[in-house]
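User: I would dearly like some help making sense of a protein record. I have put the entry right below:
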Amino acid sequence: MTQERKHISVEVRGNVAVVTLLDRNILNPTSIKELGQECMALVAPSDDGTPPLLQENTHVILQWKEVNFASSAVLNKCILLERAVKKRKGRLRMCSLPPNIREVFFTTRLDQLFSIVETEADAFASL
């Protein structure tokens, strides 16, 4: 079952949620904030007490195939998501990063924090 939000699409398959980033360019501060809120709602209770969408022990695959450009502020949202997923005993994998975005992760050495793989199949295999 796939659930569409403004900035992400979520498809849960067993204990894995495939989260596809829908925006081509993630540059606008308001969009980045909303994206962060949508991602965090998957794994953490909201301020109003709404429980997270995903159960504990659910792994997240963050699919970047639709993205052309992303602000460096998105990196912070990814770090927060990684921590929240790990806190709930899950693992985060990133896949299908365009070369320019992959370069940012390597240049900032965030490739040491995140598990970045080529394809969604590779992400599933690494869980």
